[in-house]
Predict the 3D structure of the following.
Amino acid sequence: MATDYKQTLNLPRTDFPMKADLVAREPQRLARWQAGRLYERIQAARAGAPKFVLHDGPPFANGDVHIGTALNKILKDFILKFKALRGFDAPFVPGWDCHGLPIEFKVTQDMQKNGGPARGAADAATVRRACEAYARKYIEVQRAQFQRLGVLGDWARPYLTLDRQYEADELRLFADLVERGFVYRGKKPVYWSIPCRTALAEAEVEYRDHVSPSIYVKFPLVGHPGTSVVIWTTTPWTLPANLAVAYNSTFDYAVVLVGREQFIVSALLLPTVAQKCAWGDYQIVRHLRGEELSQLEYTHPFCARTGRLFAGDAFVDNVTGTGFVHIAPGHGLEDYQLGLEHGLPIYSPVNDDGAFTHTNDLPLEQQMPATLLGKSILETNGESEANAAVLAELRARGALLHHEPYTHSYPHCWRSKTPVIFRAMDQWFIEIDHEVVNSPASAAGATEKDKSGLGQTAQSPSAPFPLFPSASASDGHTTFRQRALAEIDRVEWIPDWGINRIKSAVQTRPDWCISRQRAWGVPIPAFFDAHGEPILDARIVRRAADLIEQHGSNVWFEKSAAELWALLRPADWQGPEAVSKSTDTLDVWIDSGSSSRAVLMRRAELQHARQSQPGQGHGQPGEPSPVASPPWQADMYLEGSDQHRGWFQSSLLLSLAANGAAPFRTVLTHGFMVDADREKISKSQQAQGGYEKPQTADAYVNRWGADIVRLWVSSQDFRNDIVVSEERINKVAETYRVIRNALRYQLSNLYDFDPGRDAVPDEQLTGLDRWILAEFSKLEADVLAAYERYEFHVVYQKLAQFVAVELSAIYHDVIKDRLYTDAPDSPRRRSTQTTLHRLVTGLCQMLAPILAFTADEAWEFVPGRPTDSVHEAHWQPRPFALREDEALCWQHLFELRERALPELEKARQAKLIGKALEARLTLRGGDAATRTAQAHGEALRELLNVSQLTVQLDGEGSPQFLVAHADGQKCARCWHWETDVGAHAGHPTLCGRCVAAVERCAG
RNA sequence: GGGCGUGUAGCUCAGUUGGUCAGAGCAUGCGCUUGAUAAGCGCAGGGUCACUGGUUCAAGUCCAGUCACGCCCA
């Protein structure tokens, strides 16, 4: 009976499921990884191996993991898994950024909603405790979500910027900056809520319509009697702070005669201005180009001082106003920047209550008239005392040309709902152009550190590594900005245009305002003396760091100024005594930017061996060897390209200033998530209900599984934008199935293969097996190179195409016959099994960084696998090259295959044959390929999957194939058409080859 | 408005220094197979390489400009 013969075949069998069911099965594997401490096992196995340190940029501990954040972590995981697979010791210490406004804002909002203290009256310590609880809650949430993505790391010991030790190290780094003279006190305008008596952040202001007084004011020019420029403003109360007027150098200005006075305004805006100011009868005297205004000076309309005109092309527009913008550097951001450029005082004659006051920025006689003092800016019933008083002054002096109500969008305090003002406040700054010297900084801090005896101090940054090693100036005088730019050149930036981004960020950045009037942050341990003068001293900061390391930073907010001063005042203190403490916190970019000190230097597992070579990847041959890299310097930072101006910059500046070197050797950046229309996706759109697409990582993982998400991440060139769309992910899922099926096919044909017993040596492998191993070896080299360049999309493409073409369409298709029909232990079958075993082993390893779950799942089915998990394996590609003649032979055979397949297809269309095994092929030709075919007829027959092939060498000419139906009868076992079917009496339906196979089995 | 990027078949990507470079895989359509079967194989149709001008004997490949999108500034 024919069906019996099926039992004599070696049909594939495996428990490796065809259906992945990732959503259900991945969590089980994850649980096993965790129970078996996989990360720790990998680390232990790599102890002593060369280090590869990728330092995690801390995501904000707020909300679910966004798909964009998932992309970032997955990319990091690709690299770390790859490095570990290649034998590196590649630890991963994940981190979280915990402080900052979004959390404080949310927490205070919730407190208010829940009937808590209104208007932010809650004390800082209470708010801070709530903030910490909030951050810790989301750290837990995000930790689970990151782990679910298959990201391995030291999740039990992440770094948190709210950890006491972190905060302490951050302050120690800050103390170094203070000691080296980087930190100074200056002024900068901030949003200020008068009723709440507090500074507001951008996120805390809401824009609402508001009616302001719109006024046009004369500013008489010095040396041009009877001539004034005209400015327009909607905040009359800022006029006492006016120190300059801005024009646009690209505009055309008109000088117009009105009665006996001359006014200068933008020519384009003249008609509007003339109408507003009721210049019924005016004439244009002449035109001025913008640059002709640059030397002009004016007299303040009601203060005894003069000001100058400056170009402000960036913000002086030709749409509203007069073409002249009144500048009060203490009351506006653009004003502030222009003021800085021209060395104007950041003058802000408004006190905490929002009332006019004199300050010591200007001589008293130059400040506002006494009639204005004490007037409040805050509106009551739509009227502002300050505005009214200013208008009165202007009217009294005939300076007011026009006044009308004006409705526009204006920032309001989110809590009190009142209009906010922009007001300059004292702030701490880091001076970017600080002059630095080439010699190492004094060790003054170290002695104090030793004395304190509190806590442990992070590794000293100085010891064997000179500060600012990259300095080239011999005169010993360079600015810190120049040092930073030089250091940037020593870092490898991928993609290479990244260096432009970071350089322009460093080149153009202003001094770094590092103080915030917020509660949820690391306190700036400064005091004030009886005169309100600040006390900021490196020794005090270090003692505060020790205190905070012991008690947490809430100690700063809970203890009184006197208590703190008593604890922190150095014994030999000569300076003024403190009477109050600072309540400012550090900019959160100082938090995350300090991780070089608080994490890279702190954690033993992140240290490179001392004899560490200069960073791999940079340093050209022939170039003088640069200073050895410090052992704590990370091999890589990997974040979105927005971080050039963010974390990359803050980390670089802080580490260079305090540790003497950049914290990274290589910086890799990725693009951003965009949707199918290549428009950005954002959480806010989602929140507004306009977006139904889920944008949390979990939403994708729960629908497709982590491996599909990971494969999708790998499939696109992350240096550009990454398209997230259902269509795209479904395509990737399709590729996943193809890969999974190929693995399954390979595993299913190894059920009776024991590599120790059955493996066939290379030189005894069949030609086809040697061919695929050579192809695989090329793939391996390509994939390895792509991984090393971090081009995962190339890995994806190469792997997917290899699986689809070389494996599925060719090799796997062809070897079915030998695997199924040869005797189980025939040399030919064992040769092919040896090859499959090698392929599946290599594929699992190659796939492991990307398909973290699936590669590990398949690995468990590989006979004689060398390690328990694929992630513990050491991937060492085995080159396999064909001899030259062998390679040429296969090249010929595949050329012929290309010609034969269309002929077979034609025959199929003509209903001459169905499957290829029903065909008899005749090849006729005279070229080299045909000669090869004659010599290797059986190999070609097998490659074409036909039952019969005849080769006829015939003069010249390119090869031609003729298709006919195969001769003989179909063998019931192997389905070949053979002329010897029926020749054996015992097996009348079998061909000779099958008779042999069957009898061998039976015997 | 400025800086930095990106723009090749429906999708994701290859296309070194300008001259068979218009390719691959997937998807689609049409067949075949039913011993990888919620699988497998074959064949076919798809692109004026964003657009417009230049340089050149010759340009996805160099230059300029335009448009669209992204990031960062303003």
